[in-house]
Write a structure and sequence with these properties.
The chain is built from 28 helices and eleven strands. It is α+β, with helices and mostly antiparallel strands and 688 residues long. It has three domains: 397 residues, no CATH class; 122 residues, Tetratricopeptide repeat domain (Serine Threonine Protein Phosphatase 5, Tetratricopeptide repeat), CATH 1.25.40.10; 140 residues, Jelly Rolls, CATH 2.60.120. Strands 1, 3, 4, 6, 9 and 11 form a six-stranded antiparallel β-sheet that branches. A five-stranded antiparallel β-sheet has the order 2-5-10-7-8. Strand 7 and strand 8 form a beta hairpin. Helix 8 packs antiparallel against helix 9, helix 15 crosses helix 18 and helix 21 runs parallel beside helix 23. The protein starts with a helix and ends with a strand.
Length: 688
């Protein structure tokens, strides 16, 4: 009864962790679904789509392993070339890390450590974020975790079946990213050694050979294909050699090296890059050492803190900001510190193999260049050690001297890690400055909301003294200066903010609002920065703009910003006509220009394919329906009576429309927006 109850509790706890991990990943996916594909994501997408369309497998400009694009191709064959389907499939793979890490850690350190490992896998933000990106990491980590679980069982009970499965899985890991190749050799050595210990050298050698055979079964066909295709021995890909040159030539730089590589056929690039990369390192040893030191510090840096500081123009929902700080950087620090303590205190059977991997990952990343997703395989292997240290299962009894040595080693490792983190950036000082800035901004915004303009300006200046790079503080100061009648001062502050952070949309938008009356062309160019963020900048503009409400809106000109809510971004039709698509429900406001009988006039088009029905539109004002009508294709005027109105009254209107999604109508179209009708302009006309 007791054992059965314990198993039920374990299963229930694991199911809870798995469900929480799924919910977190779904939440992150909801935050990131509007993000377009970029860089390597777009390249993998096109590579897989071309394969599904029967155009054959083609290598990318710089060759990569084949398994990930083939994985995408299978998904595209099943669900169509759908980015969302690929992200959901990766989400499920990522959630699978929860039971894998639970089982792996429990095998080593017991039930409590397994629970901690499962919780870490469920909560760690980088693991939840990766499924939203069409990159190799999610598939690589899932295969690596599965292979490590099989290896753990194989080291406990060596057999030819576990050795063969290890070889196959680590071969698949290598075909996903060639950085996984060392695990083939490590697994072969580990199983050979355990086989020797338990059954003699002959058995050990056979087990090691079986691992290699399993890996060759999956890698060799690809190597043969490369030999036939490129007339060269390319085991998996050429990324190691090409990155050696790409990242270590200070004369040509990455772009120059890439241009040089692309002049040669794929079969010649590996030898050329290896030769030129080593020559460049020998020619610039001090530059190379400085670069390696910089990359090593970056490898252990706080990923999301750095991102917030480096790219303040990127907007994230408040929930994601906290998730990045607490479940990203916060959990990362805890994971590495606890993992280093666990490394010093525990010696599982795979300890030496994993120690080699934990040295190999930062070493190769430092040799090339750091992208912090590259450290995820390093952190994955640390999780069981961290879980063991946090769960604190009783280790085997050790002599007092050995315990003291392990404690000293743990302290030294943790101090070295913290020194590397602080050598990259003075995070405590930066945190203090940001906290002071944030306090003054909150106080300044409170003062602004209470109408205390001078107090808002003073707090904005105090925030700038604490953190001179702050665009938010300059935006608040510009608002206060404009309210005090100092338009020139407000403009100067906003232009200074743009000079500091040119990509941040808020100063651009506020400057555009300031320039409406004096330079409409420049104002429109500044207001076009509405497209530079996923933040709801229409709502932000409505709150922060100070310009008066006009009697007409030219939608698509950008000058309507500040008076519209819920509309899609401006577009241009054939000719010079600019417009915005409505959604299912959108709002806008207009000011009545004069006393008299008024009407609301639109110029709009249905914008529907001929095979779809025309949309019906209803217009509401003040809770009353002004009218409904069907919008035709092509540009037409539509008018609705407003009755007698007084000059200067501001009226809010709501336009509701039937919608369609272009992607659902035609799967070849990437546009999956919910589109209502196309509106060119709208105005209130008063009969004189």
């Amino acid at each position: 009864m007791g054992e059965k109850g314990a198993r039920a509790r374990v299963d229930g706890w694991l199911v809870g962790a798995l469900l929480f991990g799924l919910l977190l990943r779904l939440l992150v996916l909801s935050w990131h679904w509007p993000y377009p594909l970029s860089g390597d994501e777009a390249a993998f997408f096109e590579q897989a789509r071309a394969f599904v369309q029967g155009k054959g497998y083609h290598d990318l400009e710089l060759m990569r392993g084949p398994l990930y694009p083939l994985f995408l191709a299978v998904l595209f064959r099943l669900f169509g070339a759908e980015v969302t389907a690929a992200r959901v499939a990766q989400l499920l793979l990522s959630a699978g890390l929860v039971p894998l890490l639970y089982g792996w850690t429990r095998l080593r350190h017991g039930q409590q450590a397994g629970r901690v490992a499962a919780a870490t896998a469920a909560l760690f933000f980088p693991l939840a974020l990766q499924p939203t990106l069409l990159l190799t990491e999610t598939l690589f980590l899932s295969l690596l975790a599965l292979a490590l679980v099989v290896l753990e069982r194989g080291l406990t009970r060596p057999s030819w079946k576990s050795a063969l499965l290890c070889g196959i899985l680590f071969g698949l890991v290598a075909l996903t990213r060639a950085t996984g190749l060392p695990w083939v050799a490590l697994a072969a050595v580990g199983l050979a050694w355990q086989g020797r210990v338990k059954r003699g050298w002959a058995t050990g050698c056979r087990l090691g050979a079986v691992v290699l055979v399993g890996a060759l079964l999956v890698i060799l066909p690809w190597t043969v294909r490369n030999a036939l295709e490129h007339r060269a021995l390319i085991l998996v890909d050429t990324t190691g050699a090409t990155n050696l040159w790409l990242d270590n030539d200070p004369v040509l730089g990455r772009d120059g090296v890439k241009a040089e590589l692309l002049r040669y056929p794929e079969g010649e690039r590996q030898a050329l890059a290896l030769r030129r990369g080593l020559a460049s390192i020998r020619a610039h040893p001090q530059w190379f050492l400085d670069k390696c030191w910089r990359e090593l510090r970056a490898f252990f840096a706080l990923e999301y803190f750095d991102d917030f500081v480096r790219r303040p123009a990127i907007w994230y929902p408040p929930g994601e900001v906290w998730a990045r700080v607490l479940l990203g950087d916060g959990l990362y620090l805890l994971l590495v510190v606890a993992g280093l303590v666990g490394l010093a205190g525990y010696r599982p059977q795979a300890f030496l193999l994993e120690l080699v991997w934990l040295a190999y990952v930062p070493a190769t990343t430092t040799l090339f260049h750091v992208e912090l997703r590259y450290r995820l395989p390093f952190l994955l292997v640390l999780i069981p050690y961290a879980a063991a240290a946090l769960a604190a299962p009783r280790p085997a009894a050790l002599p007092r001297r050995r315990k003291a040595l392990r404690v000293a080693w743990a302290v030294l490792c943790v101090l070295a890690f913290l020194a590397l983190v602080l050598a990259h950036a003075n995070y405590p000082h930066l945190s203090y400055r940001i906290a002071v800035k944030r306090i003054h901004l909150v106080l300044g915004q409170w003062a602004w909301q209470r109408g205390q303009v001078a107090g808002a300006a003073e707090h904005a200046r105090a925030a700038l003294r604490a953190y001179p790079e702050s665009s938010e503080a300059r935006v608040l100061l510009a608002q206060a200066l404009r309210a005090q009648g100092d338009r020139a001062g407000a403009e100067a502050v906003l232009r200074e903010a743009i000079a500091y952070r040119s990509g941040h949309p808020h100063p651009h938008l506020l400057l555009g609002d300031l320039l409406r009356d004096t330079d409409a062309g420049q104002a429109a160019r500044e207001l076009a920065f509405e497209a530079n963020s996923l933040e709801n900048l229409q709502r932000w503009a409505l709150v922060h703009f100070a310009s008066s409400v006009p009697p007409s809106l030219d939608l698509g000109s950008h000058l309507e910003l500040g008076h519209v809510l819920g509309w899609h971004l401006p577009q241009q039709a054939e000719g010079d006509t600019t417009f915005r698509w409505s959604d299912a429900s959108v709002r806008f406001r207009l000011q009545v220009p004069a006393d008299g009988t008024a009407q609301l006039v639109f110029r709009m088009s249905a914008g529907r394919p001929e095979t779809l029905p025309l949309p019906e539109v209803t217009v509401w004002q003040g809770g009353a329906c002004l009218g409904r009508f069907v919008v035709e294709n092509g540009w037409h005027r539509y008018a609705l009576p407003l009755g007698n109105q007084e000059a200067g009254v501001v009226l809010w209107f709501e336009l509701r429309s039937q919608t369609y999604r272009p992607h659902r109508y035609d799967r070849h179209l990437s546009d999956n927006r919910r589109l209502g009708v196309m509106v060119d302009w709208v105005e209130i006309q008063v009969a004189r």
